[in-house]
Amino acid sequence: MSTRQRVIAVANVEVEAPGDWDTSVVDVPGGDIHQSTLNAEHRAAQGWWPHYLTFEDGRRALVLLRAQPPIPGSTAYAPRGPVAAGDPPDTVAARAIGLAAWARSVGSSILAVDPILRADRTYDDALAGAGFRETEELQAERHRMILDIPAGTTVDAMLASVSKGTRQRIRAAEEAGLRVEAASDEAAIDRFAEIYETTAERKRFWIGRTDAMLTWWRRLLAADRGVLLVARADARIVGGLLLIRQGGGLATAVSGDDASVRERLPGTMHLLRWSAIRRAVEAGHPSIDLGGVDVPGARREPRPGEPTFGLFEHKRSFGAVFTEHAAAHEIVLRPWVHRSRAIARALARVVRRRTVGGAP
Question: Which CATH architecture has domain 10-140+326-355?
Fold first, then answer.
């Protein structure tokens, strides 16, 4: 690390969350639900050790530690942190560098950070100067489709700003009898999970374990941090969209529709997306995050013929803009431990393959 490198050090560490934790890391600009007590509890159930850190400037970060046997020590991850909280990118970088010093002091061999932060060269350069390097995203998306909502915008004015084709699909969906409502009952959650799994298969993106996903959704809804909008045709749910309350506004987490009824109900996702935007307008939010459209394996704007290009065009029809965000970064804190762990994992894979293959 350069002697000139700016560092904002960790001043306090707790293993129990302060009472105002979520207000300070979720509700602030750039705040994210992955920094919340909800996520800490969710990850603790999966074997992580949550630590609630306060920097010397008063900002905070949730850091998760996890043992990686057989080598002593741990890996460290600040999920979607440290949050920007409205501060400049170089200040966020200085906090990430402070996290690295703390993680090294508690025996972690590697630290990963991935705050929600618009792409900025000063942030990247500051982290590079401290020994961080870009790494593949730890969350599903990096870049976001952001729809700005100018102050004083009315619902009618916002609807008039979307493309003509999208307005027609919204009206057609309503005329076909589709209705959108918030739901939190088990039947609705399970049905949306079924739709989302099918959507993931169709668009070829990975969603992880369904049971963990459902547990997370239920936590969000029970805490009123999530809003599940479902589109019903008669009594049947044919689409859904999960919103997160974070960063002082609403952000799209996941969405999907039943492709088998698209010919009969072509405007399902248009009506759902519009319902989410309408909520943001009525609440007076300055923008709404319509979610990502990243191409699997390539962090850039989708191109015609790629699986997410249709989703990109769909979100763009509402006026959303593809907005580049900073990459995830990691720093190796104890190189020899990191190398030893990689070797141990490679050997374990060889042993498993030989055992499964019937070799002695």
Answer: 3-Layer(aba) Sandwich (3.40)
Instruction: Give, as one character, the DSSP assignment of residue 327.
Output: P
pLDDT tens readout for residues 248-266: 999 999 999 999 998 888 8
What are the extents of the domains in the chain? 10-140+326-355, 144-323
**Which of the pair, 263 or 339, is modelled with greater confidence?**
263
Tell me the CATH number for domain 144-323.
Answer: 3.40.630.30
Q: How many CB atoms lie within 10 A of CB 357?
A: 7
Q: Is the peptide bond before 82 cis (omega within 30 degrees of 0)?
A: yes
Are 256 and 199 contacting, i.e. CB atoms less than 8 angstroms apart? yes
Q: What is the pLDDT of residues 79-122, one digit of tens each?
A: 999 999 999 999 999 999 999 999 999 999 999 999 999 999 99
In terms of phi and psi (left: phi > 0; alpha: psi -120 to 50; beta: otherwise), the region of 204 is: left
Per-residue buried b or exposed e for 60-72, using 16+ beta carbons within 10 Å of the residue's own CB: bbbbbbeebeebe
**pLDDT single digits (tens) 134-159:** 998 888 889 999 999 999 999 999 99
Rounded (10°) CA dihedral 319, 27, 44, 207? 0
Cα separation of 141 and 296, whole Å?
A: 9
Cα–Cα nearest to 184, from 140, 233, 225 = 225
Calculated CA dihedral for residues 14, 20, 23, 26, nearest 10 degrees? 30
Beta bridge partners of 252: 243
Strand ranges in the chain using DSSP code E only, listed in sequence order:
10-14, 49-55, 60-67, 74-78, 108-113, 133-134, 144-148, 179-182, 226-233, 236-246, 249-257, 287-289, 321-323, 329-332
Considering only residues 358 and 325, tell me which one the structure prediction assigns the higher pLDDT.
325
Amino acid identity at 304: P
Distance CA 278, CA 272 (A): 10
- Domain 10-140+326-355 and domain 144-323, same fold? Reply is yes
Contact 127, 135 (CB under 8 A): no
> Is the pLDDT assigned to residue 314 strictly greater than 50?
yes
Q: Tell me the two tokens of residue 61.
A: 């970060």
Q: Is the pLDDT of residue 359 over 50?
A: no
